Amino acid sequence: MITPGRRLLEFPPAQWVDLHRERWPTERAAFQEAAGQVFVQVLVGSAGIRRTPIDERGEIRLYLDSLGPAERAALDLAIPERDENGRPRHKTVNLQALVLPVAVQRDATWLMTQTPAGATVQLNDIDGVLCALVLAPVMSDLSAVLRLRSGAGPNTDQGRAESLLRCRQAHEALGLRSDLIDPLLVASATREQVVAARRALILSWAEHPPDLDERLLAMLCVQLVRAYYSKARKDGSVQEARVINTRTQPLLDATLRDWTSLVGYLGEGLSAADARPIEIPDVHLPATPPAPILERMAVLREWWMVYDALHSAQQPGGSRLAGLVPSRWSYVWPRWEGDLERRGDPDLHRSALPAALVERVEQLWSCTVLPRTPSTLITEPHPFVRFADLLQPAIEVWDDLAGNCWSLCFESWGGYSLSGMQARHTKLHRELERLNAPIDAAVYRELCEAGRGHPWLFEDLGMVVRFTISLEGGAPSVSTGDDRPSANEAGATFLALRHVIDAHRRRWLEDRLEAMLDAMWRADLGNASASYWKRFRGKGSPPTVKQALPDVLSAAERWFNADYGALARLTGAQGPITQSPTATGRRLPSDLPRVRREVATILRRSAHAGTSNSREANYRIDEVAARVTELLAYWQATGTAPPRTVVFSTSFRFIFNEFFDCDLDEGYKLLLQATQATLARASHQAATDLTLHDADS
Amino acid sequence: MTRSRPPKPYQWFKALTEVPGVVWMPPPDLVVDPRLFEARPVADERSFSPLGIAWTDGAGRPLADDYRTYMSPAELALQGRWQASDPDNAEYGLQRDPVEVARIACQALALPGTRSDYHQALSWLSHVEGVPGALVERSLLADVELVLGDPADALISPWSGMTGSDRDLLLAGASDPIIQLINLYLAEGFLVEASAAEKLLERLPDAVKARQRYWRRPDEVASALAGLTH
Predict the structure, then answer these.
(1) How distant is the Cα of B225 from the closest Cα of chain A, in angstroms?
(2) Residue in A60, A104, A110 to test binding to B, most B beta-carbons within 10 Å
(3) Helix B191-199 crosses helix B218-229 at what angle (to 10 degrees)?
(4) B83: which residues sit within 8 A by CB, 6+ positions away?
(5) Of A18, A108, A126, nearest in space to A71 by CA
(6) What phi, psi does A330 have (nearest 5°)?
């Protein structure tokens, strides 16, 4: 027997409403009616849509001034919970489409330029949610032809055809005139013809059938129905987790609310996984951390002690200690010429540590896996970057406190006011509280007290050029930076500030570090496990390793050197994910940075004349050479060269066009040849495996 | 790199309407300060001016204080663009009241000034959200002719002392009014006008033409549209 859901799929848009009327739950009738009333007001331009100015986060609020209390009560859409920082959720909305009926009355010629096309709307009241989830998406479909005529919207023929089809179907489903779309597709239409055709189309929206409320919800429901059957099995069932995603969840929220209601609306049965959800076992982590975690906690503890000692010994005239905290910036991106002098020692995060500690970091965070070949453990190219994940978020606060005080005292730009630090760290403090490691907010007050009498500590330095022009003895003179403190004043002030930070940091390390490290591994493993079981339950059977990898890999890399099997077994997971990956036998060259440098040297010869010495060309060539890391990671996992797309995204097209005078594929061949040549000189195994033939395949 | 410009005589106009090739109709209700309208540049005897000229009113009195004597009446009028109309918008001067913007810009355009002063006013007028589309179109059409007439004079202020690379950077903006006009027409779906506007780019000297094409081509939009009807 054919179910109502499948019948709906076969119906022409004008008849969607007939079936929808039979299937829509009676208890949701008041909502449907109220939504329809507001939609009518939008179509005729009387909804009273009002927007606030864009705030500092680039968001606006939308109000529907025509909404009365009775309608508001019936519009029982759920307001999304605020995010972890207490901010309202937001959604991008086609604001231009929403106000077209008003705009056409105001100025029919300059219709589209009256309002910005998109706006980020806060979802913190019923007005915003209704606009974002119900009204704007439908208005966007109705006006899609105008965007097509503007050259906006999809970039492919297929995308444009789908957009036009949705526009036609929206008109037909809502009982509006779709024949008025066609004049807007005439490319040679004059301005007057375009204005008249747009006006006719938009004004025709006011001539709607009386059952617009049902038609509106039918149209939204059909989008869900399509998403459902694109994944459904032959028996009509499908798991919720396969259908409901970030695109379909707002539709479900705006219509039937929950999965069971949707399945009932379609006349289908719940999938086995949804009908009898798998029991998620309680995850009991051991009271004491297992050995791999203990080892890593010990290294972290030692690192924090070194950090504390170095900062406590920092003296005016000494080093800023920039680069002590490992950063992705130190490794992944090449440096512009001259950056070295400005940013300090990029190798400080290694050179400042005892050799034994460096060795342990490089050993404990030495492995990773590639998502496409998860069963093979390969070399982690940046162990310190991985390690630095575990210093967050605490290091961000402590390093910013120390670094900012240094900047304020000794540098002419980059620092920001002492009084602004607490506000800047609000989010980090919240994260630390969740990890049982709050930092005493008194540090900010004490810093301000220590800085009293030095007004230059309470200014944002930014990128400001200061100069003074004076006339002494009749001759004008210009001096710069004269409001900066003297060296003595700056030095003494810095020591006073440092003393405050040192005392707080030391107390925090004594009181909170252990609790934080314990909370971190438990949170990491707990979250990985919860995420895994959610996927397991949604699927109804154990996920494959590739499917489960996004849930567990980050935590496994942090605490188990990428052995996700060990993590899965510890947390009591079931399924293929409990199998540990096996280490590859293919070894990376011992000095990867040197390989990168040599590859860059070869590439420079291929760059076309005239650019090879320019600063930008050097940077871009280094950027290309840096992709050797991705190339060799793939080789380690598979024994072959990767397809071009693994190494170069289309963003590299510009570099090859500009500096090598070739396209991406040719550019990739250049990199492969340069890498082969470099590795062949070192008699490295990969030299023979990285053939162009493999790359092309 | 463009070579430094040889010194050029200071060129000014009584109003935008006096610039050859530019079509501009001031709003009928525009009120202009007669003192500013009658002002003329004279040789500056006090040497405060970077150009050696100072603007004075009909009675020979300087229009502004010592450090602004070189500013034309149009440029002086445009100083209002830096004043926040609302304390809430003070920080970045964002979201200016479009009526106020139109008033200040149109006043500047009706006063004596240089090609660069008028370009500044027209460019501002056409970038502020909420300015009526018809006014934006007129501003862009006028700005296009202003720039095509003399790109260097329109884009570089006569009193700015700058290096060759700074000048190149400013001159790279010569195609901006045309591209904005193309985009304005495209946004409204006026493909015939957009296509005609694109042809204006050919009138720009080679040295100031855009290096990369970063606007949507009206002909491509038209053929994509035609593809939908087959």
Answers:
(1) 6
(2) A110
(3) 150
(4) none
(5) A126
(6) -70, -25
Neighbouring CB atoms inside 10 A of A452's CB total 10
| Exposed / middle / buried, residue A387 (Cβ in 10 Å: 0-12, 13-18, 19+) | buried
Distance CA A191, CA A183 (A): 12
Q: How far is it, in rounded angstroms, from Cα B228 to Cα B230?
A: 6
Q: Which distant-in-sequence residues (6+ apart) come within 8 Å of A62 by Cβ?
A: A49, A50, A51, A93, A95, A121, A127, A128, A131, A132
pLDDT in tens, A339-396: 555 556 778 999 999 999 999 999 999 999 999 999 999 999 999 999 999 999 999 9
DSSP designation for A562: T
Tell how strand A373-379 and strand A582-583 pair up.
parallel
How many angstroms separate the CA atoms of A170 and A254, rounded? 17
Q: ipTM of this predicted complex? A: 0.89
- Measure CA A36 to chain center: 35
Do you know the residue count of chain A? Answer: 697
Q: Determine how β-strand A118-122 pairs with β-strand A59-60.
A: parallel
B122 neighbors B142 (Cβ within 8 angstroms) = yes
Predicted local confidence at residue A276, as pLDDT:
86
Give the number of other CB atoms < 10 A from CB of residue B84: 14
Contacts of A537 (CB under 8 A, 6+ apart): A241, A273, A277, A278, A280
Confidence band for A657, pLDDT divided at 50, 70 and 90: confident
H helix or E strand, kind and range, residue A671: helix A664-681
- Find the helix or strand (DSSP H, E) in which A120 lies: strand A118-122
> Residue A687 is inside which H or E element, if any?
helix A686-689
The Cα–Cα gap between A186 and A193 comes to 10
Task: Name every chain A residue with its beta carbon within 8 A of the beta carbon of B186.
Answer: 150-151
* Nearest CB partner across the interface for B190, out of A152, A157, A191: A191
- What token pair was written down for B97? 């009241």
Tens digits of residue pLDDT in A72-105? 999 999 999 998 778 899 999 999 999 999 999 9
In this predicted structure, the answer to whether residue B174 has a pLDDT above a threshold of 90 is yes
- 8 Å CB contact of A148 and B228: yes
Task: Residue B121: count other Cβ atoms within 10 Å of its Cβ.
Answer: 29
Q: Which distant-in-sequence residues (6+ apart) come within 8 Å of A57 by Cβ?
A: A87
What is the number of CB-based contacts under 8 A between chain A and chain B? Answer: 82
Cβ atoms of A587 and A686 closer than 8 Å: no
Residue in the structure block whose two tokens are 């700058």: B162
In single-letter form, the type of residue at position A387 comes to F
Tell whether the model's pLDDT for residue B170 goes beyond 90.
no
Q: Where would I find the H helices in A344-476?
A: 348-351, 355-364, 383-389, 394-410, 421-424, 426-434, 442-450
Pairs from B103-109 (Cβ < 8 Å, separation ≥ 24): B104/B77, B104/B78, B104/B80, B105/B78, B105/B81, B105/B139, B106/B26, B106/B27, B106/B30, B107/B30, B107/B32, B107/B77, B108/B74, B108/B75, B108/B77, B108/B78, B109/B15, B109/B16, B109/B24, B109/B26, B109/B74
DSSP A74-92: H--PPPPPP-TTSPPPEEE
Burial readout A366-379 (b: 16 or more C-beta within 10 A, e: otherwise): bbbbbeebbebbbb
**Closest approach of chain B CAs to the CA of A235, in angstroms?**
37
Closest in B95, B133, B220 to A107, CB measured:
B133
In the 3-class helix/strand/coil scheme, how is chain B assigned residue by residue? CCCCCCCCCCCCECCHHHCCCCCCCCCCCCCCCHHHHCCEEEECCCCCCCCCEEEECCCCCECCCHHHCCCCHHHHHHHHHHCCCCHHHCCCCCCCCHHHHHHHHHHHHCCCECHHHHHHHHHHHHHCCCCCHHHHHHHHHHHHHHHHHCHHHHHCCCCCCCCHHHHHHHHHHHHHHHHHHHHHHHHHCCHHHHHHHHHHHHHCCHHHCCCCCCCCCHHHHHHHHHHHHC
Residue type, A121: V
